[in-house]
# Entry
Amino acid sequence: MATNNIQEFRDTFLKQGMQRASQFNVQMQGPGMSLFEFQPESVTVPGRELQIYRDELWGPERSIPVKRTFNSAIITTFAMDREWKAKDYIEEWMDKLVTPYADGNMRQSYTDTIKNCTLNIEAMNNDGTTANATIVVVEPWPQTIMPLDMGHAMFNDYVRMQVSWAYRRYDY
# Structure
């Protein structure tokens, strides 16, 4: 008979080890660009869900899974250095997808542009030498650069830039 106490719970996790939230690596490369060397301060790993079909023809309603969907965004947060390297890189990536002077009526073949783009998220072991898990994002592209917060009362803080990423799917 299993006893439920905090010591057994704690021992289980100490024996198996836990993934540290601070041990991660992100690799990204825009279309025709060099590998981005600046690590984000944080990354939100995407979720996944299954699209369902509701079978209501006979008997109680039943939900039947029919396909995988990737509806959640990947969010990266970058600490802005004095040269704004992260913002420059992401802005350039976005400009390669849609030219800055496009009026929105031009149909551009973005799939050829994003086909060779890279966004990999690695959960690293405690010493940071090997990956415990890797998420390879297929056809990633920066969709939104969130507004940057700056203010006179923020003298003990630094500027952070959040980027929301769109993608076709990810492989785990």
Observations:
- The mean pLDDT is 86.
- The first strand starts at residue 24 and ends at 29.
